[in-house]
């Protein structure tokens, strides 16, 4: 059975990735919506053309929102009232759903799907290869995904997961979570915490280079230790930290992190406020 999929923002950054994954799939009847001239040019490079929104949405089974988080609210306000009963609207991020800004309509489903990206431990990573698939979903390195049925009958979960697996393939595991749990993962865990810490690590790397350490030496030393320390901290190896390293970690935590930082990052009010800021259209 052919599934009619309307891809909003089909020529954008994420939309182009999804377009590349779904355009040749026989099970989908694809309709591409793209308002920008630049995005339309990207579609033309793929021998595709944009369809007017009204035409693209008519009879759609699934509508994929490959648009910026801060545009989800106004776009769903425009789109959702026009779709058929039972249509599934797929979001690529939990922010708008967790912030409560999605258009309120009870007879459609909202489904959330986000990639985990290829793992540092399993992906074939060549730092000097421009074709290395850092993001995933390019048909090379396998990745996992997380999915949530935000609204709709439980039977719709399988329908949403099938689309998500095709969008982000090749997919190994699809982990079912709630909207609230996905918001704990992103933005809280991987953006507020991980990305912030990584920027701090990069700042430290640049500082030691400024202090005279050869850049190549600093980079190789840092990236090698990143791998082994991930293995130690997450229990992939029984090779332990030395007593001196553990002492440095204890001192670093005290110096770098304020007390009870976990509550400020992962507390329900903090996560909700972060989602609201991300999804704000103002």
Structure, described:
By secondary structure, the protein is an alpha/beta fold. It folds into 2 domains: 3-177, 3-Layer(aba) Sandwich (Rossmann fold); 184-279. Helix content is 47%, strand content 15%. The protein contains 11 helices and 7 strands. α4 links the parallel β3 and β4 (88-91). α7 packs antiparallel against α8 and α7 (179-210) packs across α11. The radius of gyration is 21 Å and the shape is globular. The two termini are 41 Å apart. The mean pLDDT is 93.
What are the key terms here?
single chain; 2 domains; globular; 282 residues; alpha/beta; Rossmann fold; seven-stranded mixed sheet
Morphology: globular
Distance between the termini: 41 Å
Q: Indicate the proportion of strand residues.
A: 5-15%
List low-pLDDT spans: none
Task: Quickly give the CATH architecture of the largest domain.
Answer: 3-Layer(aba) Sandwich
List the helices and strands and how they pair.
Blueprint (H helix, E strand, L loop, with lengths): L2 E6 L4 H10 L5 E6 L3 H9 L7 H5 L4 E4 L6 H8 L8 E4 L3 H5 L9 E7 L27 E9 L4 H13 L2 E6 L2 H32 L4 H19 L9 H14 L4 H6 L1 H12 L3
Helix pairs in contact: 7-8, 7-11
Summed up:
47% of the residues lie in helices and 15% in strands. The chain has 282 residues and is of the alpha/beta class. The protein folds into 2 domains: 3-177, NAD(P)-binding Rossmann-like Domain (Rossmann fold, 3-Layer(aba) Sandwich), CATH 3.40.50.720; 184-279.
């Amino acid at each position: 059975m052919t599934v009619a999929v309307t891809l909003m923002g089909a020529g954008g950054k994420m939309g182009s990735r999804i377009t590349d994954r779904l355009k040749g799939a026989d099970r989908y009847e694809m309709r591409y919506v793209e308002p920008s001239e630049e995005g339309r040019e990207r579609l033309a490079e793929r021998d595709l053309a944009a369809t007017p929104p009204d035409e693209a949405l008519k009879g759609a089974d699934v509508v994929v929102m490959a648009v910026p988080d801060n545009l989800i609210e106004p776009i769903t306000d425009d789109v959702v009232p026009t779709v058929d009963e039972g249509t599934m609207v797929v979001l690529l991020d939990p922010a708008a759903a967790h912030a409560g800004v999605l258009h309120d309509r009870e007879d459609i489903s909202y489904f959330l799907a986000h990639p985990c990206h290829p793992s540092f431990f399993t992906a074939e990573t060549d730092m000097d290869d421009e074709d290395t698939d850092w993001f995933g979903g390019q048909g090379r390195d396998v990745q996992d995904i997380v999915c949530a049925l935000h609204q709709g009958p439980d039977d719709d979960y399988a329908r949403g997961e099938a689309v998500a697996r095709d969008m982000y393939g090749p997919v190994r595991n699809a982990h079912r979570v709630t909207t609230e749990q996905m918001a704990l993962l992103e933005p809280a865990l991987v953006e507020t915490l991980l990305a912030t810490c990584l920027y701090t690590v990069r700042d430290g790397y640049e500082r030691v280079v400024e202090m005279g350490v050869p850049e190549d030496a600093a980079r190789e030393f840092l990236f090698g230790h990143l791998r082994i320390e991930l293995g130690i901290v997450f229990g992939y190896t029984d090779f332990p930290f030395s007593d001196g390293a553990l002492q440095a970690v204890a001192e670093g935590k005290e110096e770098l992190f304020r007390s009870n930082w976990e509550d400020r990052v992962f507390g329900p009010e903090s996560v909700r406020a972060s989602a609201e800021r991300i999804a704000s259209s103002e």
